[in-house]
Design a protein that fits this description.
two-stranded antiparallel ribbon; 6% strand; 131 residues; mainly alpha; 4 helices
Length: 131
């Protein structure tokens, strides 16, 4: 195995987002800080649980998860735990805007929402189904 070093820029890059949107993300290696760093950890199961508490939020997050999973499947980039803001940041902003435009301001029904985490099949990640 070849060692790969990536420089993660503060306030611009982030690590391991795919674990929030897929059921079975496999981390690509070990991350080691070379200087003092801050890290924020989000438990994916708890995140999914909290995102289902409000139907409007759940639908927005599910749409974002759909776009993210589609990006994971469709791009020719090398799969990585590191997301570079200069590469994907503006596209992610468009995903959020598209989800907000498509979402009505009030819930259509009191249905129980599904978890926002997308199912993972073989090497492809399937997008979240709207509740």
């Amino acid at each position: 195995d070849e060692e790969v070093r990536e420089n993660i820029l503060p306030h611009e890059d982030w690590v391991a987002e795919p674990v929030l949107w897929t059921k079975h993300w496999v981390h690509m290696g070990m991350m080691v800080a070379v200087r003092d760093s801050e890290i924020m950890s989000i438990a994916p199961e708890r995140f999914a649980e909290v995102m289902t508490k409000n139907l409007v939020v759940h639908r927005l997050v599910a749409k974002y998860a759909f776009f993210f999973a589609r990006w994971l499947n469709d791009t020719e980039h090398q799969q990585s735990d590191v997301i570079h803001g200069e590469t994907l940041g503006s596209e992610m902003s468009r995903w959020v805007q598209a989800a907000m435009i498509a979402e009505p301001s009030t819930p259509r029904s009191p249905r129980t929402p599904r978890s926002p985490r997308a199912p993972h099949r073989t090497s492809k990640t399937s997008p979240v189904q709207d509740a």
